[in-house]
Amino acid sequence: MKELIEYIARSLVDEVDKVEVSQSPAPGGVTRLELRVARDDMGRVIGKGGRVANAMRVLLKVAAAREEKQVSLDVIEPR
Questions:
Q1: Stretch 45-66: mean pLDDT, rounded?
Q2: Distance between CA 32 and CA 1 in Å, rounded?
Q3: Domain span at residue 64?
Q4: How far is CA 42 from CA 16, 46, 63, in A?
Q5: Which terminus of the chain has fewer CB atoms gathered within 10 Å of its CB, N or C?
Q6: CATH value at residue 16
Q7: Exposure of 16 in the CB half-sphere (CA atoms within 13 A)
């Protein structure tokens, strides 16, 4: 699932080398994915009204459901 988010994010952004996805366990057996991209690419990853980020979350949840897992995706703002 981490690879799925990396693939989608790399397809959307200009600065491909700045895409980072980290995975960590969260309470309740949920896997938490954090997506980081360059500041200039944040708008592309989030999309108008959050539509792109929400679409990524939907695809992630479908992939996770196939494996009977729970996953959350957070887009982290760069510093």
A1: 96
A2: 11
A3: 2-76
A4: 12, 6, 24
A5: C
A6: 3.30.300.20
A7: 4
Number of continuous H segments (helices) and E segments (strands) in the chain: 3, 3
What's the number of domains the chain is made of?
A: 1
Residue 27 has pLDDT above 90, yes or no: no
Q: What is the CA radius of gyration of the chain?
A: 12
How far, CA to CA in Å, does 52 sit from each of 27, 49, 58, 59?
Answer: 26, 8, 10, 11
Whole-prediction pTM value? 0.90
- Do the strands 20-26 and 70-76 form a parallel or antiparallel pair, or are they unpaired? unpaired
79 confidence band (pLDDT: 50, 70, 90): confident
